[in-house]
User: Fold this.
Amino acid sequence: MKKTMLFCYSFLTLLFLASCMSKPANSNAAASADITGKTWKLTEINGQPIQLKNPGTNPYFKLNTADMRYTGNGGCNGVSGTFELKPSAMRIKFNQGMSTMIACDDLETEKAFVNALLMADNYSVNGNTLTLNKARMAPLAKFVIR
Assistant:
């Protein structure tokens, strides 16, 4: 009888300790890492702050999970296409889409923006900053919530 009681107390103590050690999932961290449904404004390209000839035409994009499409603007031309997202692994892939073909003064920044989207294969989020990356190389582009 003593052995049975000792076993029960030990089991309950172990169960209690195990329940104290588990932590609930942090829903705030998961919510802040969700990059969909937000408009992301370009701030850096290839490690350099962007230099816009017309500051009112800042490149941006937005991810829509309803149809898995991205839409945005490179500063002059609209861009859109489909994307694939694996949030648990922080992986992203922008597929070649379409773009308008308006001639403008700042095509260098626009081309770098579109190239960064198409080259990216992963991302990271730090607060309100989204970084698009390629493998383990230096960040391709940085964005903030618009």
